[in-house]
Design a protein that fits this description.
Layout lengths: L4 H5 L4 E6 L3 H5 L2 H9 L4 E2 L2 H8 L6 H9 L4 H19 L1 H6 L7 E4 L8 H15 L4 E6 L4 H10 L4 E6 L2 H20 L9 E6 L1 H18 L4 H9 L4 H16 L3 H7 L7 E5 L12 H4 L6 E5 L1 H10 L10 H10 L9 H34 L3
Helix pairs in contact: 4-18, 5-6, 8-9, 9-10, 10-13, 11-12, 11-18, 13-17
């Protein structure tokens, strides 16, 4: 039997987490099986995932009815459902958490996306989620917005594991890394342990390429056949910006862990804040369905894959350490976006995909709350 490429990725210092969670996965034993057969070492969730999991799924009805009988408001019933799933997933991953010494085995849950721009509300909810879920290996997801990063620093200083999500620009990642470092430094100053804390910085990929590729297509259409050189320059960068951007972010990560500030924390047992590659399913069918896996395997990283990408990778990933190759080319590609013939403002692109990313979590969250209200009405005694 040929070896499963997924299982060999760990040898390169990268962990594979899954971007999915449903009660079915837990109760059927499928999640446990994925740990064993696919080498899954962690799990992430988000409002869109919970909307798919809960809407129209009778598995949750008994707990919803119990919440109704207890007189809970709709949002509390919703939280009781997802907190239960997160706790059970944490228990399944507990063996990975212990075996890895707290490196892996985490299950991520996001604070409500509606508070992405409210620092104090984010801090309050992160604390509450962490306390109510009550598992060492839960990781609270906080958006890497200008309002979210002060919250990251604060909750890290309080000993809460954090998954900083919705990072797109390298500068945003750098600010996220320093927020983590400042949070750890506060704990050290207060005489508190930092060796048990974990954090990942979730760097989004496919959404960048979707946005840039559409801009390229629009430019190519406007050029037509009048300027073949310009058309060739535009075609040359299609589907390459997200990976180039990720490689530059990883280069920045390596610079940060060489600083004196980081080394001082490492001597006290601090764990690195690993870069996590998110949004890794390929949306363009002309691209490889594992392009965001093959090109970004490297030390001290995580790749979080949806189920379809997990299976595709198990079948045909080409595993090799490519994350630190082609760095000069990555810089040149990003610089080429400024050329008059290409003229793509990457800073504007990053700002737009961040705003859209928040909306893509708010919309399913609001939709789920609406469907929860409807379900509560249906299941309530007359």
């Amino acid at each position: 039997m040929p070896s499963n490429p997924l299982l060999s990725i760990k040898d390169y210092g990268q962990s594979i987490w899954m971007d999915n969670l449903t009660r079915d996965l837990i109760q059927t034993g499928e999640l446990q099986q994925l740990l064993e057969t696919r080498g899954i070492r962690g799990l992430t969730s988000n409002p869109a995932i919970f909307e798919k999991a809960i809407s129209g799924n009778a598995l949750y009805n008994a707990d919803i009815e119990a919440g109704i009988k207890a007189g809970k408001p709709v949002y509390k019933i919703y939280e009781s459902l997802i907190f239960e799933d997160i706790r059970n997933a944490c228990d399944i991953f507990r063996s990975v958490y212990e075996e890895s010494g707290g490196l892996d085995g985490y299950v991520s849950i996001e604070v409500p996306p509606t508070i992405a721009h409210d620092t104090e509300a984010t801090i309050k909810e992160a604390r509450r989620y962490y306390q109510e879920i009550g598992r060492e290996n839960v990781m609270i997801k906080i958006p890497g917005t200008s309002s979210g990063l002060p919250a990251v620093e604060q909750v890290i200083s309080e000993g809460i594991n954090v998954n900083v999500t919705l990072l797109f620009a390298v500068q945003s990642y750098e600010e996220c890394a320093w927020a983590y470092i400042r949070g750890l430094e506060t704990r050290v100053k207060n005489g508190q342990d930092i060796s048990k804390l974990a954090s990942v910085a979730s760097f989004f990929l496919s959404r960048i390429d979707i946005k840039v590729d559409q801009m390229i297509e629009d430019k190519i259409k406007s050029v037509g056949t009048d300027d073949l050189n310009m058309k060739a320059q535009l075609q040359a960068i299609k589907g390459k910006v997200a990976i180039a951007n990720a490689k530059i972010a990883y280069e920045k990560y390596n610079e940060i862990i060489q600083t004196d500030r980081w080394k001082a924390l490492a001597q006290k047992g601090a764990n690195v804040q690993r870069l996590l590659w998110a949004s890794t399913s390929t949306k363009d069918p002309t691209y490889s369905d594992v392009m965001y896996v093959d090109q970004l395997i490297g030390q001290d990283t995580v790749n979080t894959l949806p189920p379809t990408t997990i299976e595709a990778c198990a079948e045909h990933c080409d595993v090799s350490n490519r994350l630190e190759t082609g760095i000069e080319e990555a810089h040149n590609l990003m610089e080429s976006l400024k050329k008059p013939d290409i003229n793509i403002n990457i800073d504007q692109v990053m700002a737009e995909v961040l705003d859209e990313g928040i909306d893509k979590f708010i919309q399913p969250y609001q939709s789920l709350m609406s469907s929860m209200e409807e379900k509560v009405k249906q299941l309530s005694p007359v």
